[in-house]
Design a protein that fits this description.
Blueprint lengths: L4 E6 L3 H12 L5 E7 L12 E4 L4 H11 L4 E4 L6 H14 L3 E4 L11 E5 L2 H7 L6 E4 L15 E6 L11 E5 L6 H10 L4 E5 L8 H9 L2 E5 L9 E3 L2 H10 L5
Helix pairs in contact: 1-7, 2-3, 5-6
Bound molecules: NADP nicotinamide-adenine-dinucleotide phosphate.
Length: about 250
């Protein structure tokens, strides 16, 4: 390939940033990398390479962007729960004839002693809570609070930016960004007398210590299952696999 291959990374995750870093370290001139962020976080940690922020205007807008910016490969490294952009990526890539890979960290797997309650949605998680506890550690993100607004319980909500209503009446907010430590999570559960934890199946190590802390304390954990990756889209579990995929597609000199 004469020109540098242009790789568009749909980001907003640690993996997306790591991928941009890995591609920046590739032999000089190999890749032109653009990372796209939705713009949800006030002060995002920026990756190397070019960065664009904000929506594309649906699948059509993304397809147009791929075409106009001569993108050679699209990597959907968004969060496993960012279902709309992943769906849009699949449609746009097909329309613009751009190869697409989804980079998805593996799901969490329960260990011996875990008391997990898998559910299909945030609404199901909210419905499951009254039978499980009254003091809830809610780690599903600030955009996911409306589903819990009518639940009769006290919530400790941890999120990167401050939540906006609707949210539960009885709630304390903890503004923090992972990675979190096991000692820190143990202390949090103890100090706030938490009796149930709610999480999405985000996977990855950065936010997993809460699961270990809950297991040690014998607490139930409501785990919201992931939406599926759109049909037919290739999946990589690690940054190294994604780099290898780019190599296999000829996206290197
Ligand atoms: P979503 O529901 O799948 O997407 C909603 C809309 O946001 C999309 O249709 C798109 O707008 C825009 N968008 C999303 N990701 C984008 C990106 N990387 N670049 C440009 N536009 C993007 O997404 P979400 O769940 O709100 O998540 C938004 C971002 O936060 C994602 O980048 C994701 O990786 C990150 N994130 C999400 C979660 C989570 O639990 N959902 C957790 C951590 C981080 P247009 O249709 O206008 O293009």
């Amino acid at each position: 390939m004469d020109e540098m291959s242009h790789v568009l990374i749909l980001g907003g995750t640690t993996e997306a940033r790591r991928l941009a870093e890995a591609l920046a370290e590739a032999p000089y001139g190999t890749f032109r990398v653009t990372t796209s962020l939705a713009g949800r976080v006030a002060r995002p940690v920026l990756p190397p390479g070019e960065v664009r922020i904000g929506g594309f205007g649906g699948a059509d807008g993304l397809a147009r962007w791929l075409y106009e910016h001569r993108v050679d490969a699209l990597i959907d490294a968004t969060h496993p729960f960012a279902g709309t952009i992943s769906f849009n990526a699949a449609h746009a890539a097909a329309r613009a004839h751009v190869p697409l890979l989804a980079l998805r960290r593996p799901s969490w797997v329960p260990a011996d002693g875990d008391d997990w309650h898998p559910v299909g949605s945030l609404d199901e998680a909210a419905a499951a809570l009254p039978a499980l506890g009254r003091r809830v550690f809610l780690t599903t993100g600030r955009m996911a609070l409306a589903a819990f607004a009518r639940v009769d319980a006290w919530f400790l909500v941890r999120s990167v930016d401050a939540p906006e209503p609707p949210y539960p009446d009885r709630m304390e907010t903890l503004l923090d960004r992972g990675p979190f430590t096991l000692d820190g999570e143990r202390e949090l559960l103890r100090r706030h007398r938490i009796d149930v934890v709610v999480t999405k199946d985000s996977g990855g190590a950065a936010t997993a210590p809460k699961l270990t802390a809950a297991r040690e304390a014998g607490l139930p954990v409501v785990v919201v299952r992931r939406p599926p990756v759109p049909e037919g889209v290739a999946v990589a579990a690690t940054v190294a696999e994604a780099v290898a995929w780019l190599g296999d597609r000829g996206q290197r000199p």
